[in-house]
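SAMPLE LOG
Freezer: B-3
Tube label: C17
Construct: single chain, 488 aa
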Amino acid sequence: MKKLITAALLLAVSAGMAQSNLQEKRLQYAKIAESGTKAEKEALAQELFKLAKSAKDEGDLIFASNFIYQLGHENSADSIRKEVIRKFPKGVTARDAYVTGFYDLESTEEKEKRFKSWVKKWPMEKAEGDKLSYDYIIAALARAFAQEGEKEKALSYVEQMNERFWRAQGYIPVATSFLQQGDTAAAIPLIQTAIDDAEYYINLPKEQKDNKAGFAAVGYPGYVGQLAEIYNAQGRQTEALELIERAIALTPEQAPRFSSSYFKGLEASGRKLEALQQLEILYKQGTFGYKDKMTELYTELNGSGQGLAAYFTRLDQDVVKAICDHIKEMEVYKPAPAFELLNLKGEKVSLASLKGKVVVLDFWATWCQPCIRSFPGMQAAQAMYAEDDAVQFLFINTWERDAAYKTNVPAFIEKNGYPFEVLYDDQKDPDTGEVLAAKYGVRGIPAKFIIDKEGNIRYFLTGSTPNVDYIKLEMRELIEAAKKPYKR
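STRUCTURE (predicted):
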């Protein structure tokens, strides 16, 4: 018995060391892939090719192919993945490849048939620890059936979802479809479940919170707002207010995200001063669509519109001040990496040729929804400087996943009527093997850089907002600041 216990302990220690070593390797390889020299990258690639040839385990092959892809050997990585599927026909890679194309199928019936065939070959109960892949497909099927009015089928699929931290991604689209069809009774339990799931993770002790908990909590204000809207429409203002005020008490740091729903409940309950205060919060965040409602509430509370112009002037000053404070966090000062890329017409555009201008770079991709959401605002910002020859906007198309990107990108731009100067970020540096996004340190898109007339990066910002007016204000402050000499 003692020998068995000792063997078990040794096995556990060995497994722990193996996991630790793998993590160390992953970090080491990631560092080389991101910022290593050309020689270091090539040496790593050769090491990974050897690993791929000798590997007996699917995980090792996937590990090798992922890093080989990151190092710029896309074709080799694809070949290794094909070999993985051949060697491990019941493995994870083969499983995921089998369902590839699911979203391209035209009918929901075809999608359901593909899904059923998939789970028959790779049962969910055998995918312990890896059920999120199934949830993606289940959520898509549930949404498709809901949109087609197949209520029972939609509900049967959402009930099959596995991961509690993620299942709101299936529940909420289905609930939204039900609401659009006028079936509020079917929608409310789904939204309530999404709220309950988020609150479960929000209420976890700090030491138990992880990335899953963070993800689950992100949509919480939206779920609460959606249910509050329903309650308000049903005349259940008291319940709507209780719901929102409870949510604010639970997540006070997210209070501004509840303002849109909160003001409606406050107004309906006759708490008009508080309703106006919530609209002021939204206004200062750059949401200007409620200006008419603010005018109405201001006039009602004050008995007249006297002082209204000064009131909005003060709010506008607060908005600009908040933006100025915000852009200080984005401030940098370093030489912008040089580039020479092709535009949609096949013409070369270089940073050097634009010296003397403030240049706005916007890194984006056709699959990136946050990028696309910001485009109307970026279009409006570009229009502000249409007559200013000292400012140039460049939209750097990067990280495209489809080999036919040189067809897809121009089609996307033309379809949406964007008057953008688009450059393809597909020229790898001969020394480092990096594309421009990597040279600029881009780790997520959209990513925007404001470069001054001397060729120095002055501001770097990531993320997006769909708010056109806010983007215009923000871009104006960034560009005008970059026009001025840098103060150390």
